[in-house]
Design goal:
The chain is built from seven helices and no strands. With 149 residues, it is mainly α. It has one domain: Orthogonal Bundle (N-utilizing Substance Protein B Homolog, Chain A), CATH 1.10.940.10. Helix 4 runs antiparallel to helix 5 and helix 5 (104-118) packs antiparallel against helix 6. The longest helix is centred in the first third of the chain and has 25 residues, at 3-27.
């Protein structure tokens, strides 16, 4: 896979992650069930499958800790967040905290694009603000070196 294809496959994996995490909230499916269902979808063939599987498992395992991180950066309780916004913030917070190989600006940009695609009218602004605060806290060295911290 070349870099362009790989980046597109990773973006598509994030889109499926948001859908899976939304479904987890709404239908209450566990991680194993979500993996089974999403592996059967045609869209799964076009994503970075290893990234999707690993990230979904890690978010499911660490969801309480990630929600605690989100609670620290959000202006309202996690329970009051829109399910799409929470799904996007879970992916973004996970990547900021646990995927240091992904630059924080990429995490924020991808999350903002997800909010534009799946969220309410201005949710991308909220996602941007929350993840910017998270990046300042979780990636202090990176954000300071970049001159934004």
């Amino acid at each position: 896979m070349n870099a362009r294809t790989s980046a597109g496959a990773r973006t598509r994996a994030r889109e499926l992650l948001v859908q899976a995490l939304y479904q987890k909230q709404i239908a209450g499916h566990d991680c194993a069930e979500l993996l089974r269902q999403f592996h059967e979808q045609a869209a799964y063939e076009r994503v970075d499958q290893a990234f999707f599987d690993e990230t979904l498992r890690e978010i499911c395992r660490d969801q309480a800790d990630l929600e605690s991180t989100i609670a620290d950066i959000a202006d309202r309780p996690v329970a009051q967040l829109d399910p799409v916004e929470l799904a996007i913030l879970l992916v973004g917070a996970h990547e900021l905290r646990d995927r240091i190989d992904v630059p924080y600006r990429v995490v924020i940009n991808e999350s903002v694009n997800l909010a534009r695609r799946f969220g309410a009218a201005d949710s991308h602004k909220y996602i941007n603000a929350c993840l910017d605060r998270a990046a300042q806290a979780l990636r202090t060295v990176e954000t300071q070196a970049d001159g934004s911290g």
